[in-house]
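Researcher: Here's the sequence for the chain we discussed earlier.
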Amino acid sequence: MTVKKGAPSDTSAKADLRTAGLAAMRAALPGVLPDGDVDLRDGRFGEELVELGLVSVWGALWARDGLSPRDRSLVTLGILIALHAETELRTHFRIALTNGLTEDELAEVIYHASGYTGFPAAVAARTAAREALGA
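Model: Thanks. This is the structure I predict for it:
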């Protein structure tokens, strides 16, 4: 499915992005989401955040043509390292493996990022990778 530029302006467009997001998320995280439509809300504070991410990140960005999932993983890891986003990094290191990156390549991403984001960010990323990969 090709996702068009611009924000959804109606319920149908949002539903299309949600469907695309579920497909992209299932491809990146095999076995995490059950088949069919799923309700990602948990009844707790801020429950809509995951649903927003499903539509706006997974549906509108990850489902786009233009970059391969592998390339999107490389870009995402670089951004998350720069942001010191350790929680998201744990998930995205696993996604990167699914998208074809090797553990050696993931280490190189961290090494390369250290020159641009600083040593503390690289150490935090290495910690997140070790936790995510069991290494």
